[in-house]
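Inputs:
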Amino acid sequence: MAALGKLVLLAGLALLAYTAYQATIYRETLRLTQQEFEGLPLPLLAQLVAAVAACLLGSLAAWGSFQPIRIADVPRVAVARPHRTDFAVFNHRGTMLGALPHMRQLSVPEIR
Amino acid sequence: MQAAPGVPPQAAATGGLRKDLPLGEQLLNPKHLKNNFDILTSTKIFASLLAGVFAGVVGITGYKGFLVYLVAHALASGLLALKAGGQPQRYFPSSSQLVWSGVFSQTELLTFILFWTVTNNLVYLF
């Protein structure tokens, strides 16, 4: 989801740069033919709006998602640890044992 | 514990926690709080950037350009409210923070003016 957002963002930025370049060329031709600059032509304006919209929507997905801030909204399973604080282990390879395919039946259930 | 000026003494004694709500609904997770606030500010700064480029390419000059800035901020706030699933109080301490967070802040305003000026110069003057 974030990768898709970054892709859309990149595409939007490229389109934005191209639209700016086209606007430069448009103003240049107006200046060469001695005409007044009234405003951007409608297709260029539509292209600009599309590019800005793509950038905005892409950036919305690219930054990541919101996380709930109240502790009650992020339920965590209560972890039962042994009371022997001298031997407290907070990170050990046993947590990964269940991931090995041939160990799945043998691993001790839910020791964290 | 010294109370901040303006805090009623009952709230100061309990640290601002209410007795009628469960603790889990009042305590905030700082990591998620920072994550949400970072997304908010980054999106608003980027929206100001895009507003500046838009105003520069269209060729707006003068005070009308700040209308583009305000519209871009309103749009960004609306999209962020959509991203929050219509429940901003679930992701922010107050939903007014979502709307008014960076509107008159120095970073966003100066970003807008910078990209407005640079784009206008690049497209129309050089």
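The radius of gyration of chain B is 20 Å. Flag for discussion at group meeting.
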